[in-house]
Amino acid sequence: MATRQARLSHHARLKRPEEYHRVFSGNPVKIQSKALTLLALPNVLGQPRLGIAVPKKHVPLSVQRNRLKRLVRESFRAHQNKLMPLDIVIMARSNVAELSNREIVNRLNEQMDALVKKCGIS
User: Fold this and answer.
1) What is the pLDDT of residues 8-34, one digit of tens each?
2) pLDDT score for 1
3) Other C-beta atoms within 10 Å of 56: how many?
4) Cβ contacts of residue 56 below 8 Å, gap of 6+?
5) 122, HSE (Cβ side, Cα atoms, 13 Å)
6) On the CB side of 72, how many CA atoms lie within 13 Å of its CA?
7) In angstroms, rounded to a whole number, what is the distance separating the alpha carbons of residues 53 and 69?
């Protein structure tokens, strides 16, 4: 029987539209690759939070969208302790569905590491 991974805490998620809008309309740190865009904006909550935007236009199949979201959450969990209190939104771009899990994870890790370097350690 496979062991279940720890879930992402309720407090570590962006849930409401206003929370996403704050990141989009602020002056976020932006880190892009051909497959993903990462936006980050400081918050006052004392911990990093994650939001994921995967539009059907770019990733048409729900199986692919869910796979991408799982990979994003896992990468966030791996880097969560290194991050400052930030609200982070990760957005899928058009060619992300064509990539393998390994390629997606590698790109996410590179972008998260770049974010840690750019924003510093908490």
Assistant:
1) 777 889 999 999 999 999 899 999 988
2) 38
3) 9
4) 65
5) 15
6) 23
7) 9
Q: Which helix (H) or strand (E) holds 54?
A: none
For residue 77, which amino acid is it?
R
Q: Has this prediction a pTM greater than 0.85?
A: yes
Nearest-5° Cα angle at 65, 112 to 9: 55
Is 31 in contact with 120 (CB distance < 8 Å)? no
Task: Tell me if 119 sits within 8 A of 40, measured CB to CB.
Answer: yes
Q: What is the DSSP string of 4-47?
A: PPPPPPGGGB--SHHHHHHHHHS--EEEE-SSEEEEEEE-SSSS
Q: What gap in Å lies between CA 48 and CA 77, rounded to an integer?
A: 10
Cα separation of 81 and 113, whole Å?
A: 12
Q: Is 120 left (phi over 0), alpha (psi -120 to 50) or beta?
A: left
